[in-house]
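Chapter review: from sequence to fold.
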Amino acid sequence: VKEGTHFDLPIALGILCEMEIISQETINDYIVMGELGLDGSLMSVPGILPASLKASMLKMGIICPKEQGSEAAWALDKMIIAAPDIISIINHFKQNQFISMPEKELLEESSNYIDFKDIKGQENAKRAIEIAAAGGHNVLMVGPPGCGKSMLAEAINGILPPLTSEEILEISMIYSISGLIKEGKLISKRQFRKPHHSTTMAGMIGSGSSSGKARPGEISFAHNGVLFLDELPEFQRDTLDSLRLPIETGKVLIARANSHVTYPSKFQLITAMNPCRCGYLGTAGLECSRAPRCGEEYMSKVSGPFLDRIDLHIQMQAVSFDKMVEFNNDNIEDSKTIARRVKKALDMQKQRYKEFGFSKNADIDGATLEKNIALDDGSKMVINDFAKKVDFSARSYHRALKVARTIADLELSETVKRHHVLESFSYRKINYKSFIKV
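The token string follows.
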């Protein structure tokens, strides 16, 4: 069944072969994709990059629209015919003209991230964001309006390492099949996706057309990047709970009537919320008459299992006017300094887990964690004390240990020590009611 415009060009070339205008043998070694205009011009279609990778595996070439030639060049170093129109293809095969190989191009995306040194106060929150970046951990920031939650979330891309070549291909393939690659230029920066809280479940995890074709959602567009959910309780509960499995597995299966498609969705989740609906719970003179019950009701909109998958819970306060006036960023670390520390920690993890197939502390399974946690006697004592006093789930326990391993990596320590575990447990959700009461 023909669906979409991908097959316009192959159908046209098939007809030309039957009319003996071009030889069948000349196109046997090519995958052909392209939309054909009424004037014979070729227009772009989704999916050129994955099609080119498949052609490379099959030792074939590809025929595609000219503006997508650069996209195909990332997978093939020869046998690319990127033509402006069908006449050019005919002339090329008749050797009346020559279509040159396209060059690889990356999308020039802005690198003007918010610098950590320009964020006033919030040193504890900055520390937590650094830990999150250094291990791929999920974060929840709770604080009143205007305290800097969104700024911190948007600053994280400035301390994450650049995409590797493999990561560039992975994220670009997702954008390619969605028709979002412009002028054949691949995605070059980690994506920061910030969907509105009115986003539906289909928009978040992926959706299908009337014909059943599954398309990626926000969590796949955030693959190898950051998914920022601001005003967390305002999202539909079902939408948030649909993220629980992708958070654990790094992929999402979209099942529709005519298709079952698995898309990668290994994203770093950063979330933010006010402590209550009015936003000023615990702030003298500003909180509403329903405090503290309003805060408990507001938090109850987010399910416990979803919160259990968040590694670092950060309580933030508004920065006082005096501190804002006195603020001087000369002695505050900038994003480049923090990024170097984060990179060293991630390099340690990549080296440690290379035989296990992981690259970050947040991704490892329980067995790999137990083999590589390297607890000293002091840290074991802390864990035993917490186990007697706090009812941790197995998931919470493992996530806390992963954060402790990241904190140790930031200090370039092969051993997880007592203060690493103490800091890690301080970020865990123990009693959320007391957590939101300032």
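Two observations follow directly from the output. The CA atoms of residues 281 and 290 lie 9 Å apart. Confidence is low (pLDDT under 50) at residues 430-438.
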